Amino acid sequence: MTLEPSNKLNQSLQRFSNILSQAEIQAILDTQEQPLSTSIRLNALKTTPHETIHDLSQRYGWQLEPIHFCKNAWKIIDAETSPGGTIEHRMGMYYLQDAASMVPVSLFEINQSEPLILDLAASPGGKTTHLIDRSGDKGLIIANDGSQGRIPALRAVLETWGGINQVITNYPGEPFGGWFPETFDIVLLDAPCSMENLRPTPNHPLRETSTDERLRLKERQIQLLSSGLQALKTGGQLVYATCSLAPEEDEAVISALLDKYPDTFEIEDVSKQFQFKAPGLTAFEGETYHPQLIKSMRLWPHLTNMSGFFCALLTKHGEMETGREMPPNRDFSATHLEPLRKDVKIQIMDQIKQNYGFNLENVLEAHAVDLFKRFDQLFLIPQIYIDHFSTLPYEYIGMPLGQWHQNSLVPSHAFASRFGREFTRGIIVIEDSHVGMWISGRDIRHPQNEQAPKGQYLLVNDQDERNLGLGKLLPKRLRNMLPRGLI
């Protein structure tokens, strides 16, 4: 079919004129004129999602629509208050995420009690937080990204989300299969791509891509997918995803590996999980792809009312030949992390129970983490990392618990933000008129409080019991302990 020239018809869309009807192309053009709905996914670590979403909709005048394929996620159809400007967003109670980006992690069947997960290209971290929720923050997630410049943003997202069983690493993704063959239960590869998604957003406007760019990306994507499949255990699952609808970066990548490693993995049919039909391609522009690609998912904007996206769920059935290589190595002692002595650990847990009515021992047992110190700083460290990856250098690990100063614990914001809703004492409630002042980083003078001020660290709540971080109660003021990044 030949289309009439149109100044609205971009080159990326023109490529699909032989597989989409004129009406379908016009429908995609129409979606490009419409703003994309904001979507949020609630943090199951910090909220009771269905109660919290009701409170949020009432407080901020949100009209909501559930996202049927993703637990604890909603589209915001209309809003009196922007979801990006709330206290709850700042405190990590939900994540702003394009609905299409929620599809990949929703595909996994995570049945292991302590899954070992590799997120091969993790930044900026939205899908990693989804993996944390899907795994119940148990096991271990290695959140890797090859770009050093993207690590700070990834760390900030994970710290705000409040997970414990996580490690951030900064390596190219291609060597992981040789470093850790047959190791991971779950692998997510949200591959670097051209972002040719046919649906512009303020952060990602439409851009034209060249054949050379797409083919260069294809070669790297094949290497990354091969690495991810090698690192995956036999019987494990891998999701391959891109925010591009270019077949060279999608079907062609998986097809190349199906041909190279026949009978090693298969694509699962996940269409029953979705209300829209969006099968992958088995041919495009003279190229023929493996027949299994029809079971992949091609999220066209006019069918889903989301950004364009591609994803496929792969199950591994046999080992792949790989040249085993030694991963980067650092003696664990170089981290200066040391396990706490039993008597000090008991002292810290007793203080937390006495000051906040919170049982830290339950957390250590339920999440298989342990207490470590580095000089006067305390950390919750995943036990699986210690047992299996202790010599792998990392950028960030676990969760900071706080500072051990003169045999007294100064809790971290991360700890109070994650577990504060379970505190039964050590809480101060501030007046509604002081909330804006507090969130802007200012101290509160002469707070109304029945507790004798003696420099104790208290969890700060507002009248609606929202967690506002920690404050230090002094004789004439409540000192603001919010991290600068949240102010």
Descriptors for this entry?
single chain; 487 residues; alpha+beta; Alpha-Beta Plaits; Rossmann fold; Nuclear Transport Factor 2, Chain: A; five-stranded antiparallel sheet; 25 strands; globular
Would you give an account of this structure?
- The protein has 487 residues and is α+β, with helices and mostly antiparallel strands.
- Among the domains are: 38-96, Sun protein, domain 3 (Alpha-Beta Plaits), CATH 3.30.70.1170; 110-316, Rossmann fold (3-Layer(aba) Sandwich), CATH 3.40.50.150; 426-487, Nuclear Transport Factor 2, Chain: A.
- Helices cover 28% and strands 24% of the residues.
- The strands form 5 sheets. Strands 5, 6, 7, 8, 9, 10, 13, 14 and 18 form a 9-stranded mixed β-sheet that branches. It has a 5-stranded antiparallel β-sheet with strand order 15-16-17-19-20.
- Helix 9 crosses helix 10.
- The longest helix is centred in the middle third of the chain and has 21 residues, at 211-231.
- It is globular and about 80 Å long.
Topology at a glance:
Blueprint: H1 11-14, H2 22-32, E1 38-42, H3 49-60, E2 62-66, E3 73-79, H4 87-90, E4 94-96, H5 103-106, E5 116-119, H6 126-134, E6 140-144, H7 151-161, E7 166-169, H8 176-179, E8 184-190, H9 211-231, E9 232-242, H10 251-260, E10 265-267, E11 283-284, E12 287-288, E13 297-299, H11 301-304, E14 309-316, E15 338-339, H12 342-356, H13 360-367, E16 369-374, E17 377-382, H14 383-388, E18 396-397, E19 399-405, E20 408-411, H15 413-419, E21 427-429, H16 432-439, E22 444-445, E23 456-461, E24 467-473, E25 477-480
Parallel strand pairs: 5-6, 5-8, 6-7, 8-9, 21-23
Antiparallel strand pairs: 1-3, 1-4, 2-3, 7-18, 9-14, 10-14, 11-12, 13-14, 15-16, 16-17, 17-19, 19-20, 22-25, 23-24, 24-25
Helix pairs in contact: 9-10
